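batch_manifest entry 22 of 60
target: Amidohydrolase
source organism: Nonomuraea recticatena
requested by: lab member K.T.
priority: normal
notes from requester: please return tokens only, no post-processing; we will run our own comparison against the previous entry in this batch. if the run fails, retry once and flag.
--- input ---
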Amino acid sequence: MDSVLFTNIRPHDLLVVDGRIADPSTRPENTVIVDGGGALALPAPVDAHIHPDKTTWGHTWLSRTPASTLRELIEGEVKARAGMTASVAERAGALMDSAVARGTRAWRAHVDVAPEYGLANVHGVREAAEARRHLLDVQIVAFPQLGLLTRPGTAELMERSLGEGADVIGGLDPLGIDGDLHGHLDVLFGLAERTGAPLDIHLHDGGEQGLAQVREIARRATGTRVTISHAFCLAEARELDDLLAESNVALTTCALGADPVLPVGPLTAAGVLLAAGSDGVRDPWTPFGDGDMIARAHLLAYRTDARTDEELAACYAVAAHGGAALLGLERVDLKAGDPADFVLVPAASLAEAVVDRPTPLLVVRGGAVIAREGRLLERSPR
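--- output ---
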């Protein structure tokens, strides 16, 4: 029986037995003692939306070309990828190592699938994830970044990917990219019905065009686990909150640059599952991002004008509990029976941690200390 007692931490000491938090009154003999140095324990956060196959993390700096439309960004990415010399597994793995060292518990990774790429990106991210399966849980979304209906053969590749490393079927702006709402959704929901895989659909389209797509996705969602990512059209529109809650359609937001950000308070109050993610990290789309989900909770709080302790804590809950629920992971409330997946940060309160975005002093997974002060204790294979 493996037993570790984390002492001198807030809000209370944590006893871990065989990877789970246990009643401290039942401490086994030969329990290892770890001094937390007065740090605050927080549930480890989850990155529910990231694109690791695109990243240049840990490799040569990429200078980006100007782009003002989604299509220009997509075309620029294709050109940039052609010049990348490091493999997908190397680049994604480097980003995984950094994210884990900053406390991330799990990823939902959107990975490009297209006739131009085949399933090479899925294979590369899965290779990196398998090498780190003791450090990070990774779900892979087969993502039609270049288009679904407009790239014949993509749907077949996405279905095949489910047997070769992918877990979730992705979609992308049925109207804005493919120009066919019902045709695009027919393919996605058909795949979900045949395979039982969840759906995660990028939706950048704004205004009434975006809202119409949300309504149709929600209408079709009965019996299928569906997430809409970004959903910029919902940043100001509240009339669909109840529909999303009733249809169990989840949302992810990334608090990006100038893009609209989903409001935490109204959506969670309506019962909508909301999670957060990094989106692109140091890739052809953006020079920014670092895979640090404590920092992402800070950005979410800043962009939604969180001011009270409760509002700041709610943004961290989106990153920790919302992400865990979206990926089907057990919730961590630091109570007996919970998985011992947590971080110890130098902060007096959760609100202070969200504002200060500190590097964790310790990252704990299954009761084992896997990172200290932003560095992995065990280097992952490359």
